[in-house]
Every structure is written in C-alpha cells, then in structure tokens.
Design brief:
Blueprint: E1 28-33, E2 38-43, E3 56-60, E4 62-64, E5 68-73, E6 79-87, E7 93-99, E8 108-112, E9 118-127, E10 132-137, H1 143-150, H2 168-171, E11 179-182, H3 194-203, E12 206-212, E13 235-239, H4 241-252, E14 257-260, H5 262-271, E15 280-284, E16 299-303, H6 310-319, H7 321-333, E17 344-347
Parallel strand pairs: 1-17, 3-12, 3-14, 4-11, 14-16
Antiparallel strand pairs: 1-2, 5-6, 5-8, 6-7, 7-10, 8-9, 9-10, 12-13, 13-15, 16-17
Helix pairs in contact: 6-7
C-alpha cells in the first residue's frame, strides 16, 4: 500500500450532497473529541453547546466570484469553457480553459451569459502552462462587475457536473462573504446564519475574520504516491494585527481558537510558522501533512472531504489519523451528507 492509498475510502455516490439543506443550521455535526477519543452526533444549530464563551471563532470572509465562463471560439464556433483565476495587471485575466483544437494568440472567444446570450469577448494573449491562458477582455467594466454579468458560480464537478442553478448564487456563498476573489467556497462557513452568529456572540464567543481566496487547486487530486512529492497550490491570504491580538488575547485568557474551515486554518498556521501567531499577508503554499506541528488552531469545524485529497490529509493530521478514520467510517455508516453542500465535523 502506498502512502496515498492510506487516504482512500469508499463513499456511496448517494451521500454526495447535490443541493444544500433549506435551513443551513439543520446540517448534522459529527463532534470528535480528541482528549477522550469519542465521537458524538449533533447539529450545527447546537454549535453554541460545543464552543465555550472564552473561545474565539475564526471565519474566512472571502467572496466567491462567478468565475465559470462559457462561450465559443469566434473563428470556429467551437465550444469554449474557462475558469477565471486572477487579474493579471492592466486589463488581463489568467484563466484555466478547455476547448477543442488549437487556440492561439489573437483569437477571440465570445462569452455567453447564463441565459445563453452573447455578452462579452476575450482576446487570447498567450497560452501558459498547465492549461492556463492569458486573455484580455474587450470591456472597460471592472473585472468583478464583468464577471457578475457573464459568469456562473464555479461549482465543483461533483455537484450536478458543475452546472449551477439560480439558487446557487446565494447558497454557495457564506453570509459573511466580503472580499471577492475565491473560485470555490470556504464550505465550512456555509453552515452559518446571521442568527447562529448572533447566538454565539451573545454567549460571549469572539468572532474574527481572516481571508484566503480559495483557488482551483483546492480540488486538484494528489497524483503522486508519496505526500512529500506533491506540489501544493498557492493561494493568497491575510490576517491583520487586530485579529492576531484578539486571538492571542483569548488564548492568554484560557480560551480556544476554533477555526471554521481548512482555508482559515491554512491562514493561521501560515502566519504562525515561527511558533507565534503574527500578522501576515501573501501567497501560501502550506501543505499540512504528518508530522505537522500546529501553533495557532485548537479546534476545527470542517466539512467531509474527498478521498486522496490534500484536505483529507490536513484533517487527519489535525484530528489524529486513527480517530478521524473512525469518524469517517461513522459518518458513512450514519449517512452523513458529504462535500461542499454536506454536513460538518467539529474536531475538539
């Protein structure tokens, strides 16, 4: 058995959630206690029963942009699909694209809006590595304004083959999303409502925000047999001085740092590589795998992740390999809902 094979498991297809629950807080919550090595069943609506007043909750306030692009090559009429990845300076976009045939610099792609109407044009500037292109939109509109007009919500392929419906615009976005830049949702954050956040604040729980713009690499499978050979994707994140002081203050007072999502955890642990949590911003390529030493996170709220993925490796590293293996077996046995629109696990 290879090192990667240890992170595989059997998942019935019917357990992959295709739509969110009508009420976000009705999601089930598998509570994993590392100290006692026990597993309990709860619900997101009861999260305040598991987080103490002295604790501080960390949320990722990135905002998912309608980054999925659909259109056709003007020269041939051939179908073209792409994913906006980032702005690259003066009116240039970096996109991840698929099309039949060879597309070269100077060629034009016509983008169609979600209703199927021609809505914008892109000129190919250069082809980059690993399926990425550099393109120039023929529009004076700001990038995110143009994406709102022509783009689609970039659902992962395991949700309806990536095809959005209108309700996904709200469902695949956290209620505290603020800073646009993500092409995938920080899915642990999807469970929160304004009422639940208010309930936690009333209990005395601190709530702070960090930012990590989730990139397409979050869905990239590990294709090597040894974890130390995997090249981790890079994502932009930040944590400011005020947030750092709030978190350090809560810890000094005996509280825990409860991190909502693997994306928030990557920000904190990147910012705490020295052993002390400090303000930070920039690109992170942090791959959390054994034997990783955690400096900033005391508890983790996270969804259930794909087999053989970097996120599953992270969660098993944080929660303890044998215990999280058992938790996943328990979640399948009790038919928890998996992945982005699914249920959650709280590791204490």
């Amino acid at each position: 058995m290879s090192e990667l094979d240890q992170y595989d498991f059997n998942l019935p297809k019917e357990l992959i959630a295709q739509f969110p629950l009508r009420q976000r807080t009705d999601a089930r919550l598998l509570v994993v206690q590392r100290r006692t090595q026990t597993i309990e069943h709860s619900h997101i609506r009861d999260l305040a029963d598991w987080i103490a007043p002295a604790d501080c909750l960390v949320l990722n306030d990135t905002r998912v942009v309608p980054a999925r692009l659909v259109g056709y090559r003007e020269k041939t009429g051939g179908r073209w699909t792409g994913l906006f990845v980032a702005s690259e300076g003066a009116n240039l976009w970096k996109v991840l694209a698929k099309t039949r045939g060879c597309t070269g610099p100077g060629e034009t792609v016509v983008l169609q809006d979600p209703t199927g109407r021609d809505a914008a044009r892109l000129t190919v500037v250069a082809r980059l590595e690993e399926g990425h292109w550099l393109v120039r939109p023929e529009s004076d509109a700001p990038t995110y304004e143009l994406l709102e007009a022509v783009g689609r919500i970039p659902l992962p392929p395991y949700i309806r083959g990536g095809e959005m419906v209108d309700s996904d615009r709200a469902a695949y976005q956290t209620v505290f999303a603020e800073k646009p830049g993500a092409v995938a949702a920080p899915t642990a954050g999807l469970h929160f409502t304004e009422d639940l956040l208010a309930k936690l604040r009333q209990r005395g729980v601190g709530i702070v925000r960090v930012t990590l713009h989730v990139g397409p690499g979050t869905f990239r499978p590990i294709k090597v047999e040894r974890l130390d050979e995997h090249v981790m994707h890079s994502e932009w994140g930040m944590i400011d001085a005020q947030t750092v002081e709030s978190l350090n203050g809560r810890r000094r007072a005996g509280g825990r740092i409860v991190v909502a999502g693997t994306t928030s955890l990557r920000v904190l642990e990147t910012a705490a590589r020295s052993g002390t949590l400090k303000p930070w911003s920039g690109q992170t390529e942090l791959f959390i795998r054994p034997p990783f030493e955690f400096h900033a996170a005391d508890a983790l709220l996270t969804n259930f992740h794909l087999p053989r993925s970097t996120l599953l490796v992270l969660v098993r590293t944080f929660g303890g390999d044998a215990l999280i293996r058992r938790a996943y077996e328990e979640s399948v046995l009790h038919q928890y809902r998996f992945f982005s629109y699914g249920d959650a696990m709280l590791i204490l």
